[in-house]
Specification:
This protein has about 750 residues and is α+β, with helices and mostly antiparallel strands. The chain is about 50% helix and about 10% strand. The strands form 3 sheets. Strands 2-1-3-8-9 form a 5-stranded mixed β-sheet. It has 28 helices and 12 strands. It has helices at about 1-5, 15-45, 55-85, 125-135, 150-160, 170-180, 190-205, 205-215, 225-235, 245-250, 255-260, 265-280, 290-295, 310-325, 340-360, 395, 405-415, 450-455, 460-470, 470-480, 500-510, 535-540, 550-565, 625-635, 650-665, 670-675, 680-700, 735-745, and strands spanning about 100, 110, 330-335, 365-375, 380, 425, 445-450, 525-530, 535, 580-585, 590-595, 600-610. It is flat, with a radius of gyration of 34 Å. It has 3 domains: about 1-45; about 125-310, Penicillin binding protein transpeptidase fold (Orthogonal Bundle); about 380-385 and about 395-740, DD-peptidase/beta-lactamase superfamily (Beta-lactamase), CATH 3.40.710.10. Strand 1 (about 100) and strand 2 (about 110) form a beta hairpin.
Length: about 750
């Protein structure tokens, strides 16, 4: 190499550029020649596979389909990862608890869970029960791999023909996967997870094991899970002894237990049982002659007219049991809960009545309600419109944007950092990066007291306060209260991040109790099968600590009281006690909230749609506030309601106190009973109505608290989160008017 790069003499050591160029050219030529020879041989080998015409088109489509299918499989698998994480737990033992639940007064209200050792073995379940289930739910159960592709395609065609969902395509394995690992919410993500978990179950368990788990876990109405519990509930006997007609009736409950539950609609249940008998004949499991007797003699059930099961609350309480219990050896338990059945019934009725009367007009299909004491004891919990249709508990598991109902956490942070309700704030343009909030009206109102801004639910002021005091402090307070999902964003003040109604209601309980920490709970006491106390809330849980100074909470409550009397929540006013709270509406009216409290109960109401579609302009001051008022009017049975920190007693309560004081002088026993919290005597109720009518006629009691410039029957909605440019109603009444009325009452 040295010879052709450097002269041989080596005296001046010059580079021989001609020799170097020749060497590079020769090397490139040899490389190219070798590559051409290799490519020629490679092409000759694959030339034999050359296709053209329709065959080539088919192969091209198959190739592209395989590529896209592989990519889609990777994406779908990514969606399914969270579901597969659930299989890492001891999923076959987590549901072994058998819990009998009692209400707050010690009355049995239902059961949850099942002990595998107590369940009826599969070989003891009658053959006609198994055939009825298979014929109705999954005729190809023993031949598919967990997903019945033919059955799904057939159901899809039937649904298209009917232009409605008339048949389901889920196999028994898919339904079991949903019951074991997933929530019952209707979404594409859940269906993807359900399909993968079904295949996973088929690989881990035998067909008989899957069938047994399904028959033990399926919800069949009346608070009964599994065929044994359902047989005991409807027929008062073991599933071992049921007839063909009874088996057909139970098999008809798998898909729609609320619609066909015999204790709710016996005729519809019998009609559904007849369909099941038809399915058994069509599937070839029985002949028409064998089912003829069952058609002529339909099943009868035991009388359950007085039955009521607080299923949403029981599901929540069962989850709490599994968190509380640390001893895996104790599975048969009795738990005394916090639920008040009278309040639970009132909550159910309020939600269902409001959705039935106004849901279609407002294009809203679902709702949730949580009501608790100021210390977090949950008295009522409604997780949706119909438990039989969907057991997804929206009260405890649905993360929904709170909208403007999040603003009190921002205002509390401002109060902690030197602001007062009378501090002047500016309703004007604010910026966070490139984003700028807008009010519901799209305009600005200039300077005003901070109490006015919260009363009117102005977005610009709330965002400005979060920027002025520091969004980090707002996040810290939200976490301290219990909203741990909240993160720092520009629009944090407008409730842009999800929270559950249960957690949100507990947050407002901090305001109602004067600033003490609140952790919602459903279990008061747990005992084992020997009667030994395993857990007691007042003994085993830490004492609540103070989170905020009482003075700051009183200031906040004074502003929240104005929201109800003169702001966006006037429809939530109660004629017998003082109330405070805040409305909330998320972007495009997808979520509507009213969070409010009296001196006794804290209640939160959410309304929206599971698929996040916008409602028909529904705001928190509309149906949620009306539902809240309907429920709270039934929840309070006496005038003995404590005073809200920072707010005066209601005029009706003041009048009742005076009446009792006079009554004490003439009839001490009756006065003592009323002061102890007994139900209102009839004469007391009549006297109250007379007093309220007199005061209203005299102009001293404005029940509706309508501003003078606003037309009767209208309500100013709050500003929806991130929904600028939309018209807002007239401005609410001034704070001065309300403060004057409160001053009169205090005198």
């Amino acid at each position: 190499m040295r010879d052709w790069i450097i002269n041989a003499t080596g005296k001046k050591k010059r580079v021989n550029w001609l020799a170097l160029d020749s060497w590079i050219d020769a090397g490139l030529f040899d490389t190219w020649s070798g590559f051409r020879d290799w490519w020629s041989g490679y092409s000759s080998f694959f030339a034999r596979f050359h296709v053209s015409g329709l065959k080539r088109l088919f192969y091209e489509l198959a190739s592209e389909g395989a590529t896209l299918g592989t990519a889609g499989l990777v994406v779908v698998m990514a969606f399914a990862i969270p579901a597969f994480e659930e299989t890492n737990t001891a999923w076959q033992t987590t549901t072994k608890y058998s819990v009998t639940f009692l209400d707050r007064f010690g009355n049995e209200i239902g059961k949850r869970g099942i002990l595998h050792s107590d369940a009826v073995p599969l070989d003891e379940i009658p053959d006609h029960m198994i055939k009825a289930a298979l014929a109705t739910e999954d005729r190809r159960f023993f031949s598919h791999i967990g997903i019945d592709f033919l059955g799904t395609f057939r159901a899809l065609l039937e649904n298209v023909k009917a232009e409605d969902v008339v048949q389901g395509g889920s196999s028994i394995t898919q339904q079991l996967a949903k019951n074991l690992f997933l929530t019952p919410e209707r979404s594409l993500k859940r269906k993807v997870n359900e399909a993968f978990l079904a295949i996973w179950l088929e690989a881990r368990l035998t067909k008989l094991d899957i069938l047994k788990l399904y028959l033990d876990r399926a919800y069949l109405g009346g608070g009964a899970f599994g065929v044994e519990a359902a047989s005991q509930f409807y027929f008062n006997k073991s599933v071992r002894n049921i007839t063909l007609a009874e088996a057909a009736m139970m098999a008809g409950l798998f898909k729609a237990p609320s619609r066909y539950a015999p204790h709710l609609d016996l005729s519809a249940s019998r009609a559904r049982a007849n369909v099941v008998l038809n399915n058994m004949v069509e599937a070839g499991y029985m002949t028409e002659g064998q089912v003829h007797g069952a058609r002529l003699n339909p099943a009868d059930i035991v009388d359950r007219n007085d039955f009521y099961s607080p299923d949403w609350f029981l599901d929540y309480a069962f989850e709490e049991i599994r968190k509380i219990m640390r001893d895996p050896e104790e599975y048969v338990l009795t738990a005394r809960t916090t639920v008040d059945i009278s309040l639970q019934k009132a909550a159910d009725a309020s939600v269902q009545t409001m959705l039935r009367q106004h849901g279609r007009a407002k294009r809203v299909k679902q709702a949730a309600l949580v009501s608790m004491e100021k210390d977090g004891a949950v008295r009522a919990l409604v997780g949706g419109k119909d438990y039989g249709t969907s057991q997804f508990n929206r009260a405890t598991h649905a993360l929904r944007q709170p909208g403007s109902s999040f603003k009190p956490y921002v205002y509390l942070t401002a109060l902690e950092n030197g602001y007062t309700p009378s501090s002047m704030v500016v309703d004007g343009p604010r910026h966070c990066g490139r984003w700028s909030p807008r009010n519901y009206s799209g305009g600005y109102r200039g300077r005003m007291p901070m109490a006015h801004a919260l009363m009117r639910s102005l977005n610009t002021v709330a965002v400005g306060l979060s920027l002025d005091v520091g969004r980090e402090k707002v996040v810290a307070n939200a976490h301290k209260i219990g909203l741990t999902h909240i993160k720092k964003t520009c629009s944090i003040a407008l409730g842009d991040q999800g929270t559950t109604p249960l957690v949100h209601t507990a947050g407002y309980a901090v305001f109602a109790n004067g600033g003490m920490a609140v952790k919602p709970y459903a279990i008061e006491e747990v005992r084992n099968s020997r009667g030994e106390i395993l857990y007691r809330h007042d003994r085993d849980e830490p004492k609540p600590e103070r989170l905020f100074p009482l003075k700051k909470i009183e200031q906040l409550n004074s502003m929240l009281g104005l929201v109800v009397t003169s702001g966006t929540a006037r429809r939530a006013q109660l004629p017998f006690t003082t109330a405070a709270g805040k409305t909330g509406t998320s972007s495009a009216w997808r979520d509507a909230w009213f969070m409010g409290f009296t001196g006794q109960y804290v209640t939160g109401v959410w309304m929206g749609n599971d698929n996040y579609t916008p409602t028909g302009g529904l705001t928190g001051g509309n149906l949620p506030a009306m539902t809240w008022k309907e429920y709270m009017s039934q929840a309070h049975a006496t005038f003995s309601i404590p005073q809200i920190p920072g707010l005066p007693l209601h005029l009706a309560q003041v009048a009742e106190q005076k009446r009792l004081e006079e009554l004490r002088k003439t009839n001490p026993a009756v006065a003592a009973s009323a002061r102890a919290g007994a139900s209102m005597p009839e004469e007391t109720r009549k006297a109250l109505q007379s007093l309220l009518s007199h005061l209203e006629r005299a102009g001293r009691l404005d029940i509706e608290a309508k501003p003078a410039e606003q037309k009767a029957g209208t309500t100013q909605p709050e500003s929806p989160t991130l929904a600028p440019g939309q018209r807002q109603g007239a401005a609410p009444a001034t704070v001065d008017r309300d403060e004057k009325r409160r001053a009169d009452l205090s005198r």
